[in-house]
Amino acid sequence: MFFGLALLALCGVGYMVSAILLLRWNRWGFYLMILSSMISLIVNLMMNEIPLLQTVSSLLGILIWWAILQIRYQGISVWKQLTFHSKNR
């Protein structure tokens, strides 16, 4: 139980880091968000404390982010404008 809660706390930190990376136009942010969501989904299912519908609905956030990243601006999707490296501004 304690290990599961600690892992969920780390996933929360992962969500925050992924949001920061996405705001910095870094593609790793999306991948980190998927990883954090999958880990928290597995931990929640194993702990059996949260209803299944609420647990699976967390995957809806990934679909929303994916849809946002598919928006096109001047014929180029946002996904193609994301980079794998940090830009020094």
By DSSP, the count of extended strands is: 2
Strand order of the largest sheet: 1-2
Low-confidence stretches: none
The class by helix and strand makeup works out as mainly alpha
Radius of gyration: 15 Å
Q: How much beta, percentage-wise? A: under 5%
Helical residues, percent: 55-70%
What is the mean predicted local confidence, pLDDT?
Answer: 84
What is the makeup of the main sheet?
A: 2 strands, antiparallel
Give me the number of helical elements.
Answer: 5
Quick tags:
single chain, 89 residues, two-stranded antiparallel sheet, 2 strands
Describe the structure.
- With 89 residues, this protein is mainly alpha-helical.
- The protein has one domain (2-81).
- 70% of the residues lie in helices and 4% in strands.
- The protein contains five helices and two strands; from the N terminus they run ααααββα.
- The protein has helices at 2-23, 28-47, 52-56, 59-69, 78-81; strands at 72-73, 76-77.
- Helix 2 (28-47) runs antiparallel to helix 4.
